[in-house]
Amino acid sequence: MADTITETAPSDIQSLEESILANVAGAANEAALEAVRVSALGKKGVISERMKTLGKMPADERKVMGPALNGLKDRVGDAIAAKKAELEDAALEARLATEKVDVTLPVREAAISQGRIHPISQVVDELTAIFADMGFAVAEGPDIETDFYNFTALNIPEEHPARQEHDTFYFNEKEDGSRLVLRTHTSPVQIRTMETIKPPIRVVIPGRVYRCDSDQTHTPMFHQVEALVIDKETHLGHLKWAIEAVCKAFFEVDDVKMRFRASHFPFTEPSMEVDIGCARIGNTLRIGEGNDWLEVGGCGMVHPSVMRYGGLDPDEYQGFAWGIGIDRLAMLKYGMPDLRTFFDGDIRWLRHYGFQPLDIPSLAGGLSR
Fold first, then answer.
1. Mind listing the pLDDT tens digit for each residue in 41-69?
2. pLDDT tens-digit map of 183-200
3. Largest Cα–Cα distance in the chain?
4. What is the DSSP string of 209-226?
5. Which end of the chain has fewer CB atoms within 10 angstroms, the N or the C?
């Protein structure tokens, strides 16, 4: 920037203008240009000080100096604005010359393509789609249950091992001696459904359940899905067909081998364990092939006592129910070796096993990718 602007004679307008414009032209950056503007047009700038003297001039002299100083002010202002635009353009050119974009780099994925649906949520949606196609409605209930709904109404006696604290999470005892529990199965929803819906009943019940257990194939909190059908005429043939149809649709195979082994559950009579045919090849498991067997769940006809607790007459209505672990189904279908990793919150695991947000299961389009 040129030397600081000095006082000039009032009549020396041209000399003053040349001095200011030289300083404007010599400004190397916007900060230097701003200093020139302040020294010329600021409150105490050279031109501003000259403008203040107009009131003391004789009228004839004021008529000459007024337009001259105003013209000088406009020309200097225009010159400063033009120089500022020039400096801004130069700064932009410098940035463009140094800041480059490598167009060969891959484009960053959109947020919707980076997100993942947890396999448990995906399997619940798959099962819901299957059962909905079979005419089932979805029923839900609370995770915190009373002893009545979780045990008594399901015909589980007081001395049953499932009631012990080494199997069940109990809350603190209330003043009346009762204790709430974290439900150990989704079966309490059966009772709540029978209390609120008049038969025929056809519902599927997915949800979280809780038990004191933790290893490679068990966690303290896991997921179950069970189905309940109640009508005036139901039998084991209907039950076997329904389970087979669901397994074929879920595992997306044309045929499955199944066997039903006699068992005992307090809430069903007769009761059976369900095995599905499979082939173990190395570390992989193939459903619908081979001569091996894998247990997938339990089932049976609803016990008459359970029907009575639900407010139904077992002489008029019959029903069947079965339950399967959702987590185990996910492990079987998608090859996940350890159940505990489902709940680790590891984003790397979720990116590997998770599903695209818009990959919505449907029987028409295919359940899985």
1. 888 888 888 888 888 888 888 888 888 88
2. 999 999 999 999 999 999
3. 123
4. EE-S--BTTB-SEEEEEE
5. C
pTM of the model: 0.66
Residue carrying the six token digits 């600081």:
4
What per-residue confidence (pLDDT) applies to 364?
A: 61
Among residues 259, 330, 253, which one has the least CA distance to residue 289?
253
3-state SS, residue 113: helix
Asked if residues 126 and 133 have their Cβ atoms less than 8 Å apart, the reply is no
Per-residue exposure over 271-280, b if at least 16 CB sit within 10 Å of its own CB, e if not:
bbbbbbbbee
Place of tokens 């896991």: 222
Q: How many CB atoms lie within 10 A of CB 157?
A: 10
Q: In this structure, are strands 137-138 and 284-287 parallel, antiparallel, or unpaired?
A: unpaired
Positions of E strands within 172-220 = 181-182, 201-210
Q: What is the DSSP letter of 325?
A: E
> Rounded to 10 degrees, what is the CA torsion of 127, 133, 136, 142?
30
**Phi, psi at residue 269, to the nearest 5°?**
-160, 110
Q: Does domain 117-353 have CATH number 3.30.930.10?
A: yes
In order of 63, 64, 73, the CA distances from 59 in angstroms are: 6, 9, 21
Cα distances (Å, whole numbers) of residue 299 to 38, 187, 288, 305, 358? 90, 12, 20, 16, 34
pLDDT single digits (tens) 170-184: 899 888 888 999 999
Q: Cβ neighbours of residue 366 under 8 Å, at least 6 residues apart?
A: 252
Q: How does pLDDT run across 9-37, given as a tens digit for each residue?
A: 445 788 888 888 888 888 888 888 888 88
Residue 223 tokens read as 């997921």
Instruction: Evaluate whether 188 touches 203 at the Cβ level (below 8 Å).
Output: no
Tokens standing for residue 367: 């359940």
Kindly tell me the sign of the dihedral angle through the C-alpha atoms of 232, 236, 237, 242.
Answer: positive
